[in-house]
Amino acid sequence: MASLLFLRLVVPLALLLLPLSRSAMVVTHLPGFHGRLPFHLETGYVNVDEETGTELFYYFVESERSPDTDPVVLWLTGGPRCSSLIFYEVGPMKFVLAPYNGSLPELAYNPDSWSKVASIILLDSPVGTGFSYARDIESHRDVGDFSSTLHIITFLNKWFIDHPRYQSNPFFVGGSSYAGKMSPIIAQHISQEIKQGKQPRINLKGYLVGNPITDSMFYDNNFQISYAYGVGIISSQIYEAAMRNCKGNYIRPRNKMCAMVLNTIEDLISEIEKEHILGIKCEHDLLRRRFLSEEYTQQSELSTEQPAINCNAYRYYLSDIWANMDSTRYALGVKQGTIGEFKRCKKVCPIHLMPRAA
Q1: Are 75 and 182 in contact (CB under 8 A)?
Q2: pTM
Q3: Is residue 241 predicted with pLDDT exceeding 90?
Q4: Domain ranges of the chain
Q5: Quick one: signal sequence residues (predicted)?
Q6: How many angstroms separate the Cα of 191 from the Cα of each of 106, 159, 163, 171, 237?
């Protein structure tokens, strides 16, 4: 009788503690947000490589409209190696932009979240990004685009097996910046698995990219001259001079006149905020970055200098502070001891600058 009473008391307590040790949990409250979250949020890990102990961390935000029929979108952040926290781009939360005074950054609901019309899977990929980790630390360094793609395919297959409710929903692979390279490859792999009859059968409908990286040197950067002219950053006279002297090759100038006009264009573009051309130019960014590409505009370190509030990077500054708090990691179900300091982006990519005239 005593043992039965013990089970009745202890087992319910164990069930209450279980979500903190499982691979997935429902999050109803977040530090910095007052009250219960106005959307369904699930976080968790999926093991994608048994040998290296690689586990990818995800955020799943269920559609606030009709989750049984609305699309499911996998959204990948660029970088590469930038975390997909729910505050960036398409997610349901945002930071209250107030001067940071050492306390917990405050959060607010984002009324423009894609979760208004779709369920979103935000994934920290590749391993070593955000809260994703591996038991074998070398796997953080060795993972490339191809192996990362295979990890994501494994993640999706396991995730849909664990979430059969969404298997029939229209599914899209999406992402920004560097994910422009990854999204089509992932979609192709899924399409091949569908043709082979593999299970689970993901209801792939397509892929979508935002400001995508394709081939930075020969395609993306080369077309930024036309883009700069199209949005009014450079005049028609300068654009015509570039076309006349560079003959469509804006990467490696082959004559002095081409180099001079490209230098002029680079100087003009350096006057704007490259991530958001209508935003405020932020002087805290000391690196000269190549034109309008997002590939090299991500913060890789927790800055010791607070950027101005009206700078786009200020929310990145707040996110690093927020994600490094113990209360945040506890609320998200982050496994203790798996990562050290959280950095939104953990790798600095090389910066390709246009050659300047002598």
Answers
A1: no
A2: 0.82
A3: yes
A4: 23-213+301-352, 215-293
A5: 1-23
A6: 42, 17, 20, 12, 47
Rounding to the nearest 10 degrees, give the CA dihedral for residues 176, 177, 180, 186.
-60
Residue at 271: amino acid letter: E
Q: Can you tell me the distance from the alpha carbon of 299 to that of 289, in angstroms, rounded to the nearest whole number?
A: 12
Mean pLDDT of 318-340: 94
Q: Name the pLDDT band for 246 (thresholds 50, 70, 90).
A: very high
The per-residue pLDDT for range 56-94, each reduced to its tens digit, is 999 999 999 999 999 999 999 887 888 888 887 899 999
**Which CATH number applies to 23-213+301-352?**
3.40.50.1820
The one-letter amino acid at 233: I
Task: Report DSSP state, residue 309.
Answer: T
Q: Which of 163, 136, 145, 141 is nearest to 58 (CA)?
A: 163
pLDDT at 289 over 60: no
Rounded Cα distance, 257 and 259, in Å: 5
Check: CB of residue 234 under 8 Å from CB of residue 261: no
Q: What are phi and psi of 232, to 5 degrees?
A: 85, 20
Place of tokens 């506890």: 330
43 sits in which H/E element: strand 41-49
